[in-house]
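Protocol step 4 of 6: record predicted structures for both targets in the notebook before any analysis. Target 1:
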Amino acid sequence: QVQLVESGGGLVQTGGSLRLSCAASGRTSSYTMGWFRQAPGKEREFVAAITRNGGSQYYAESVKGRCTISRDNAKNTVYLQMNSLKPEDTAVYYCAARGGFGEVGAINSYDSWGQGTQVTVSS
């Protein structure tokens, strides 16, 4: 497990952009990294993931074309660039890490989680 701390959330208007960051206390090069979100009254859902070598990126259909996940293993940091934000993107965003394998969107496959950062998109 690694310790994860998210940052970069905030309040933006519809159509705005944010870049979320997730800093790890340990080396993350051997981990697949993911972003998940949970809106009020909703289940936590998959947003994006990136493989250990950064060569493969995965996105939920709801954010395709608007979000980009990236990582800098030298800095032990993963990012989520979000553009063209919509009110339905409002949620607490969590980063997660896993050393195992399987479906990248499977919440229970991740063994390390950050505390979350709030993203609010006003209409």
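Target 2:
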Amino acid sequence: QVELAESGGGLVQTGGSLRLSCTASGSISSINAMGWYRRAPGKQRERVATITNAGNINYADSVKGRFTIYRGNAKNMVYLQMNSLKPDDTAVYYCAAARGAIFGHWGQGTQVTVSS
């Protein structure tokens, strides 16, 4: 079992920055990749950024150039640095972990609200 815990959400103005943090516990040795997804009100959850154990990184087009995903010094930590935030970034952000090819482990989410 993999448990994920996110933190770092909050309320910021347009153009502001936040850093989200995620800590994994449990069967972390089986994790192949970690990432961040988000779900805005009335919308489906979408992938924001992912990073594999090999270092392969993917970003959603909407956040490329503004967000950076990186692993912490500890293997069980992943961060999402969010800069130049826009109201469209408002969502609940979820940390995710993959075992094999599937992101099937999810945190409880942290709210990010960007005001106009």
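Step 5 preliminary note on target 2. The chain has a mean pLDDT of 95. Residues 13 and 115 are 5 Å apart (CA to CA).
Proceed to step 6 after PI sign-off.
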